[in-house]
Design goal:
single chain, mainly alpha, Serine Threonine Protein Phosphatase 5, Tetratricopeptide repeat, 11 helices, elongated
């Protein structure tokens, strides 16, 4: 009896998922970008339909072409990882940039990585720093870690241990363990005054919602 009940519940769940898929497909066919994006997610995750990365890309592209930032990000991710399309660094950069220009923090972070590693664009530390900073200002902890690293090593920006301390401290506050380890390495290289200055600036930056960090 229990097996029958579980099977019945599972079939009901699948039926509900299929019904939701049909509703989303109808809205996507009408050209609604948000529905096209959500339909792509359903294909990507196998919700109400067999998982199909190529179909996911198809619908991401429809939404992305309408300027839907989340779809642009996911399309860039698909090209970066060869999911549903052949891996293509230049296309990944193209779509990450479109989303980044609309303020998508994840796209800004990934675009920073592309410039730092020279994938799909010429390597450019100054551009990497620029995009990491945009993402860091939105609270992206990974971007904050990389921003701190660039300050610590003088890549793309003049070396500045206090600024490295600031961004790693903020990322640590968000639970980033890598930032905590970086701080442990950095602190012995700083004077007590530098640490105090870094703590004060980090507090000001965090309390201002990343609007007063310089």
């Amino acid at each position: 009896m229990r097996l029958i009940l579980i099977l019945t519940a599972l079939l009901a769940f699948k039926g509900a998922a299929a019904s939701e898929f049909d509703e989303m497909k109808a809205l996507a066919d009408k050209g609604l970008a948000w529905a096209q994006f959500n339909l792509a997610l359903m294909y990507a995750n196998g919700e109400g339909v067999p998982e199909n990365d190529a179909e996911a890309v198809k619908w991401y592209r429809k939404a992305a072409d309408q300027g839907y930032a989340a779809a642009q990000y996911n399309l860039g991710f698909s090209y970066a990882n060869g999911e549903g399309v052949p891996e293509n660094d230049a296309e990944a950069v193209k779509w990450y940039r479109k989303a980044a220009d609309q303020g998508d923090a994840g796209a800004q972070f990934n675009l920073g990585n592309r410039y730092r590693n020279g994938r799909g664009v010429p390597e450019n530390d100054a551009e990497a720093f620029k995009w990491y900073r945009k993402a860091a200002d939105q609270g992206d902890a990974d971007a904050q870690v990389n921003l701190g690293l660039m300050y610590a090593t003088g890549e793309g920006v003049p070396e500045n241990n206090i600024r490295a301390y600031v961004w790693w401290s903020i990322a640590k506050t968000q639970g980033n363990t890598g930032a905590a380890g970086n701080l442990d390495i950095l602190k012995p290289k700083m004077t007590p005054q530098q640490i105090a200055d870094g703590q004060a600036l980090a507090a000001k930056c965090y309390e201002s919602g990343y609007k007063d960090c310089d």
